[in-house]
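pinging the channel bc i need a second pair of eyes. not urgent but kinda urgent?? the chain im working w is below, pasted from the shared doc
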Amino acid sequence: RRSRRSLCALTVCMAQDAAATKLQALHRGNSSRRLQEDNQEAGSALEAMLARVDSSAADATPRAEADAAARVQALHRGNSARRLQAEEHAAAAVVLEAGATRAAERKSENERRSSDAAASAAAAAAA
């Protein structure tokens, strides 16, 4: 009797294992198919989005290039103008410095002549 029960229990156990294996296989198959469908939907949505981006990028490219070129040109013009202004400012400073030096030299020459003239006049008056 005991062996018969254990044989029945073993048969029931094997049948349960087979049923569980079958259910697991069905679940894995359904999950895999669902995942594949989701991936296909996501892939087609991604392709559609990329197509929109590519077409808008192709349309916007000449405009973007023109804007970028205008920005580069504006930067170059600004840098050139600032460099030219700095050079002009430096040249003006040199001219002003040279003029101030000449004026100081003239003033000192005039003062020397005045003192020489005063000394000559004083010497003539004393003689």
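so Helices lie at 2-126. and The mean pLDDT is 84. — does that match what u expected or am i reading it wrong
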